[in-house]
Amino acid sequence: MLRSPLLTVMVQAALKAGRSLKRDFGEVEELQVSLKGPANFVSVADRRAEQIVFAELKKARPDYGFLMEESGAVEGSDKSHRWLVDPLDGTTNFLHGIPHFAVSIGLERDGVPVAGVIYNPATDELFTAERGRGAFVNDRRLRVAARKDLSAAVITCGIPHLARGDHDLFRRELAVVQSKAAGLRRFGAASLDLAWVAAGRFDGYWERHLSPWDIGAGIVMVREAGGFVTDLDGGEDMLASGGLIAGNEAILRSLLATLKSA
């Protein structure tokens, strides 16, 4: 596939950060004997990957702003464009030696996500998307799944962490979705959840309390694969509200109605 210069820059940044994470991931198992060692090591790996992404993108587009998980907001002179960067989405998976984590880079233009790259260095799967140009994994075109009934659908979700989020609400939502869907999964990396919806591996996805860097790239991925993404009220306020539903049109509508009943 032919990539635009902008997407090429994003891919290069993700691959370079991914190489760093892959090296660090190989060391994690050796640190599991220490309670303190792994967490500190992963924190360093996270920051190092973010510095790599920042340097690569800054060099290519010096005027663009940034919103990053570790370093926060960096203002740019170009107020229309902002990078959304999660250098290590799935930190807990990484920490425990689970090969399901990703570098996620999204680009928003005037507040709307327009391009995304999600790269899992452990599996070497590179998901890319750009508005109007389609979504791909390792250059293979992506399409969302065609299932229309929740009773045949596998849905992924996020579970609120200890002392974060509304656990009672989640348990109600879980119960009502579980009563209607074929299966539920929780994999622990929002960017890859969205990429897997785009790839048709999951039929739908919902989660609350997400940050823009978690979902900026994935929103473009799902939409360019023929899917739909809304906030939990069916609107377009995903980046600000942190709540999100994704799937094909039929699954999204069913999932939205089901969650509202909780």
Automatic annotation (TrEMBL):
Top-rank lineage group of the source organism: Bacteria
Keyword Nucleus in record: no
EC number(s) recorded for this UniProt protein: 3.1.3.25
Gene Ontology biological process terms from the UniProt entry: inositol metabolic process; signal transduction
Record keywords, A-Z: Hydrolase, Magnesium, Metal-binding
Sample GO molecular function, one term: metal ion binding
Cofactor(s) named in the record: Mg(2+)
Coiled-coil parts of chain: none
Enzyme class: hydrolase
Reactions the enzyme catalyzes: a myo-inositol phosphate + H2O = myo-inositol + phosphate
Binding-site list for Mg(2+): 69, 86, 88-89, 214
Family per similarity comment: Belongs to the inositol monophosphatase superfamily.
PANTHER family membership: INOSITOL MONOPHOSPHATASE, INOSITOL-1-MONOPHOSPHATASE-RELATED
Full protein name: Inositol-1-monophosphatase
